[in-house]
């Protein structure tokens, strides 16, 4: 029993990332009808927003402290972030420590802007082109984005730690009455799951309970009629693209402490996220979220040593295997709507 | 795929009107000319690709060394095969590298178990890749559009993951597979201990080269290259025949309107499956040739980026055209091997004639796009092609030709008009 709970928890954080990226992909597909292969790159850009922000916070100057010496006897060179001077030493250190969560505030406007620019500048011209062309041009864009990041940040992963308060794990098993040490779970992964749940809830609430969301849903169902009613649906869809980009970006920001960001992390996630979207059903938002968590958890179960003993290597292929089975038995995916991407 | 019915159709010039009249080898006049051109290019590639004398500053743009020339033709085969599927039927496979990889593994096992002769290895590669494609195609082709792309991608990634982990006894896992002197080659005499096995064709080693020095130029004629080139020419010939055949027409019908095809009472499935298998066999041939040239395989050959690369090649050159994929393959491999070698000092050398500050500025601007950053250039180029030239380089060439011709025509027309005016006066 405890092993099962542990694997479910293990699946949640990866599943959260899959669900967030897949949610964004589905939003873009459902509104604009575009298959966005650059969505993984947006995830990656979000992660690098966090890197950039924490580097900005740590911009520092050096001065020579004559009263102290280093081990060679020279006067000590002290590096002090400008932030210490602005906020005072303890507050400054706290802000730097909390760089990753704070960079959410930085990432939202940046990612919204990137999303809107991307839609207006490029994707707009591809609505009438075949899906294959959309895939290809966004694939090209993804290559360009990741090469730009590689140029500025190098090819190596950049460790970006979580705040000190969240480093370490807590004994989840002891809390719910199992033996101590049976279910140990890192704090940050719990935070990540909670964060993902909030974002997903926020997106659904936004679509469900606001007028803007209602119009967008109407536009997804029947774009032409909405346009005939005199609503500028294109502008709203552009904003939705921005929101989808921001969702992917935030997923990336919060993922940095789990996995040090590197320039190709987006592509690694993208392939799996597409599988997730297809399994969930193209164009179905709940399907994307459900499939994201489901595949994350299944992957976690497949990585159990007991399973690996019986079926070696199954953890590497399980997601694809599930995808193939789902696509062949339920061609529209788990919760796919009729008439989406069909011939 | 319905969208493609209306505006995704890339016109192909390959269906020549006089397919039966004139021309040899069962080719139309136009196709024959194209084919002979490709034959000539392959035969004289060591000259064409080495235009700069040895030791000059531009010598690094020479692509006439065996390893790269082999890659040109082998990836040309790969792209030709991909084009048979994507260019004709419009099914975008994102997992084509799996067939190349499977073919490579089959090839190396033939060379390990049977003989160092490359012929059984290549045949084995084609057969095994074809069988694998039959299985994958049978399942994947039940869906179309993005679902098909994802299914093929899933199969390819599964093959990669399996080759990398579980199937290590068969594939060598992370280290890959190499030939060893102690392999049980049942048709060959055992090799002396410690000798590296080399692939050969009835005793002619793949690595054997004849070097010709003409003045300051050095041309290398490599046995492996010519064997791969002959394979490429056969593959190319096959693709021309296939494009012009009734079967090719059926495949184009699948691309332009599958519904209409079904209403006529024809099931598209056997045709698409056949195209998928043929395309897989082409990939297998390419994989077998790769093994024949460098006698090693690694699982990364099947990673999805490798599948993405063949998509890039085909689109960049021109999907649905005959010569496009070959051009695209050559283009990308040239970039990968030559442009990636340009480093900062080389750039500084080129622009040394400028004033110092201008050299610095120019080098700083260009540097991100060459050397290690060549992928950036490739990505930008690829995007530009998809946006502005959906027909790839071939369409670009045609457009250019049309513009030039129109220019000449309009000049003629002006002259005619002028003459008439004079006559009227």
TrEMBL record, chain A:
Q: Which GO terms describe its cellular component?
A: plasma membrane
For molecular function, the Gene Ontology terms on record are:
transmembrane transporter activity
Q: Which domain of life is it from?
A: Bacteria
Q: Which GO terms describe its biological process?
A: amino acid transport
Establish whether keyword Lyase is in the entry.
no
Alphabetical UniProt keywords: Amino-acid transport, Cell membrane, Membrane, Transmembrane, Transmembrane helix, Transport
Membrane topology reported for the UniProt record: Multi-pass membrane protein
Where does it reside? Cell membrane
UniProt cross-references to Pfam families, sorted A to Z = BPD_transp_2
The UniProt transmembrane annotation reads 16-35, 42-63, 98-123, 135-153, 165-185, 192-216, 236-257, 269-298, 310-328
Which CDD domains does the UniProt entry name for this protein? TM_PBP1_LivH_like (cd06582)
Q: Which PANTHER family does its entry note?
A: ABC TRANSPORTER ATP-BINDING PROTEIN (PTHR11795:SF442), BRANCHED-CHAIN AMINO ACID TRANSPORT SYSTEM PERMEASE PROTEIN LIVH (PTHR11795)
Q: What family classification does the UniProt entry report for this protein?
A: Belongs to the binding-protein-dependent transport system permease family. LivHM subfamily.
Q: Which protein is depicted?
A: High-affinity branched-chain amino acid transport system permease protein LivH
Which classification does the entry list for the species? Bacteria, Pseudomonadati, Pseudomonadota, Alphaproteobacteria, Rhodobacterales
User: What gene name is listed for this protein?
Assistant: livH_4
UniProtKB/TrEMBL annotation, chain B:
| Any GO molecular function | branched-chain amino acid transmembrane transporter activity
A GO cellular component annotation here is:
plasma membrane
The membrane topology of this protein is: Multi-pass membrane protein
Q: Which InterPro entries match?
A: ABC_transp_permease, LivM-like
Q: Does the keyword Membrane apply?
A: yes
Q: Which regions span the lipid bilayer?
A: 34-52, 72-94, 114-139, 146-167, 223-243, 270-291, 311-335, 376-396
Question: Sorted alphabetically, which keywords does the UniProt record give?
Answer: Cell membrane, Membrane, Transmembrane, Transmembrane helix
Subcellular localization: Cell membrane
Q: Which domain of life is it from?
A: Bacteria
- Where do the record's region annotations for Disordered lie? 1-21
State if Metal-binding is listed as a keyword. Answer: no
Q: Name one Pfam family in it.
A: BPD_transp_2
What PANTHER family does the record tag this protein with?
ABC TRANSPORTER ATP-BINDING PROTEIN (PTHR30482:SF17), HIGH-AFFINITY BRANCHED-CHAIN AMINO ACID TRANSPORT SYSTEM PERMEASE (PTHR30482)
Provide the protein name. Answer: High-affinity branched-chain amino acid transport system permease protein LivH
């Amino acid at each position: 029993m405890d092993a099962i709970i542990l694997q479910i928890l293990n699946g949640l954080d990866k599943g959260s990332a899959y669900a967030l990226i897949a949610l964004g992909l589905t939003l873009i597909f459902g509104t604009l009808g575009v298959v966005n292969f650059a969505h993984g790159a947006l995830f990656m850009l979000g992660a690098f927003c966090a890197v950039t922000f924490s580097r900005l916070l740590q911009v520092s100057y050096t001065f020579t402290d004559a009263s102290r010496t280093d081990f060679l006897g020279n006067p000590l060179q002290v590096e002090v972030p400008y932030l210490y001077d602005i906020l005072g030493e303890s507050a400054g250190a706290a802000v730097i420590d909390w760089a990753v969560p704070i960079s959410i505030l930085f990432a939202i406007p940046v990612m919204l802007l990137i999303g809107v620019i991307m839609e207006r500048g490029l994707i707009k011209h591809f609505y009438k082109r075949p899906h294959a062309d959309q895939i290809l041009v966004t694939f090209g864009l993804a290559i360009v984005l990741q090469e730009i990041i590689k140029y500025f940040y190098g090819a190596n992963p950049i460790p970006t730690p979580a705040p000190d308060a969240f480093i370490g794990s807590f004994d989840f098993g002891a809390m719910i009455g199992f033996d101590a040490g049976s279910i140990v779970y890192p704090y940050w992964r719990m935070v990540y799951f909670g964060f993902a749940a909030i974002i997903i809830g926020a997106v659904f609430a936004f679509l469900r309970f606001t007028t803007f969301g209602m119009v967008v849903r109407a536009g997804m169902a029947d774009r032409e009629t909405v346009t005939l009613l005199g609503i500028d649906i294109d502008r709203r869809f552009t904003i939705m693209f921005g929101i989808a980009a921001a969702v992917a970006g935030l997923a990336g920001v919060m993922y940095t402490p789990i996995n040090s960001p590197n320039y190709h992390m987006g592509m690694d996630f993208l392939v799996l996220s597409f599988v997730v979207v297809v399994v969930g059903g193209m164009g179905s938002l709940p399907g994307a979220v459900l499939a994201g968590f489901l595949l994350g958890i299944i992957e976690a179960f497949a990585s159990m040593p007991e399973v690996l003993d019986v079926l070696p290597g199954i953890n590497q292929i399980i997601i694809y295997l599930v995808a193939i089975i789902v696509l062949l038995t339920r061609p529209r995916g788990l919760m796919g709507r009729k008439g989406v991407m069909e011939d | 795929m319905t969208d493609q019915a209306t505006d995704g159709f890339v016109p192909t010039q390959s269906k020549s009107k006089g397919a039966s009249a004139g021309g040899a080898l069962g080719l139309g006049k136009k196709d024959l000319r194209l084919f002979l051109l490709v034959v000539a290019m392959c035969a004289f590639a060591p000259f064409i690709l080495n235009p700069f004398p040895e030791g000059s500053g531009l010598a690094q743009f020479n692509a006439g060394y065996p390893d790269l020339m082999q890659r040109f033709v082998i990836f040309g085969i790969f792209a030709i095969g991909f084009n048979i599927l994507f260019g004709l039927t419009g099914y975008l496979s994102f997992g084509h590298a799996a067939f190349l990889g499977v073919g490579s593994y089959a090839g190396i096992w033939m060379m390990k178990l049977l003989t160092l002769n490359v012929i059984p290895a290549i045949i084995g590669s084609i057969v095994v890749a074809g069988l694998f494609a039959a299985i994958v195609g049978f399942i994947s082709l039940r869906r179309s559009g993005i679902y098909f792309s994802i299914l093929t991608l899933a199969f390819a990634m599964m093959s990669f993951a399996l080759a990398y982990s579980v199937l290590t006894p068969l594939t060598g896992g992370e280290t890959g597979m190499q030939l060893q002197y102690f392999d049980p080659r049942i048709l060959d005499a055992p090799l002396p201990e410690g000798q590296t096995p080399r692939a050969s064709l009835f005793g002619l080693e793949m690595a054997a080269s004849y070097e010709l020095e003409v003045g300051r130029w050095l041309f290398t004629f490599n046995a492996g290259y010519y064997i791969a080139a002959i394979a490429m020419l056969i593959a190319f010939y096959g693709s021309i025949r296939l494009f012009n055949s009734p079967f090719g027409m059926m495949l184009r019908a699948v691309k332009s309107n599958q519904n209409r095809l079904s209403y006529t009472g024809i099931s598209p499935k056997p045709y698409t499956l056949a195209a998928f298998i043929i395309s897989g066999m082409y990939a297998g041939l390419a994989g077998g040739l790769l093994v024949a040239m460098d006698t090693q395989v690694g699982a990364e050959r099947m990673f999805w980026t490798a599948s993405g690369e063949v998509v890039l090649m085909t689109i960049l050159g021109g999907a649905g055209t005959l010569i496009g994929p070959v051009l695209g393959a050559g283009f990308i491999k040239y970039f990968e091997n030559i442009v990636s070698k340009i480093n900062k000092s080389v750039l500084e050398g080129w622009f040394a004639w400028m004033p110092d500050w201008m050299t610095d500025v120019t080098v700083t601007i260009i540097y991100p796009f060459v050397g290690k950053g060549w992928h950036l250039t490739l990505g930008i180029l690829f995007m530009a092609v998809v946006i502005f030239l959906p027909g790839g380089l071939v369409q670009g060439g045609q457009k250019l030709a049309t513009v030039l011709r129109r220019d000449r025509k309009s000049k003629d027309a002006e002259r005619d008009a002028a003459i008439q005016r004079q006559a009227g006066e």
